[in-house]
Predict the 3D structure of the following.
Amino acid sequence: MIVVFDPHALPPLRDVIARHGLDARKSLGQNFLLDLNLTGRIARSAGDLRGVTVVEVGPGPGGLTRALLATDAAAVVAVERDSRFVRALQDVVEASAGRLTIVEADALEVDPVELVPAPRAIVANLPYNVATPLLLGWLKRIDAFAGLTLMFQKEVADRLVAQPGSKSYGRLSVIAQWRAQAKVLFNLPAKAFTPPPKVESTVVQFTARPDPEPADWKTMERVTAAAFGQRRKMLRQSLKPLGDAEALLAEAGLDGTARAEEVPVAGFAALARAVSARTGAS
Ligand code: SAM
């Protein structure tokens, strides 16, 4: 397919912002990327998008949206909560030859699997205040996506890819790595954004694990909440709310004196299976 969309053919993003009076709102996590070279880098880092429908959450003034339209993606469906941007993006919709659709909605209420056909991917510079709940919702259905390429605060990205034994290793690391292969692609300094946030940012890519450890989502949430809720305690203590902790640990093949931060993902999945077996959960 010959790509005909030229991100630079439209007015500069700063002009779009000035013309539409788009002051950034902190409550909506609005930190914009106005450098099209940078947004191009993010879009290309998503890999081969030929024939893929990309869901973008929070297009804002449209820097990343333009870059996504310049890839081989079949279509881009952008979900934006702030109606000011929905209006401002109409010029991009018109220039997209039918490849861009804007949906005005809260992304937390939208199921991308219902929204667009497969093959589908998500590429987004996420609003940081809702980045984690959005990611968890998508991880539940990760096998429905060709991939997720997402910008987070670096501190959250560190937790997503943390290995056992590190201080960032926690619930989010376990759940994310149980469902997906998570890879850090690159960091961006705060000054790359307008207005700059307080912290550095990181692009992380997720692809479905071909053979995830079998375990039930809700039980994994319960087990990791109990274990990391008291991360300094030994598991035989912290897992007591789940029932007979010693028996569960024995069944999962784990040492009761271990602490949550030492247990690999497979250990938590084994624990979740042990809990499910005892409570009859699926
Ligand atoms: N993609 C743009 C960029 O890179 O310049 C903007 C990214 S900005 C970090 C986050 C965007 O998400 C904003 O446009 C904001 O209005 C939007 N947003 C915030 N909360 C949202 C939600 N719950 N659902 C959909 N969009 C949301």
The radius of gyration is 21 Å. The longest helix spans residues 265-279.
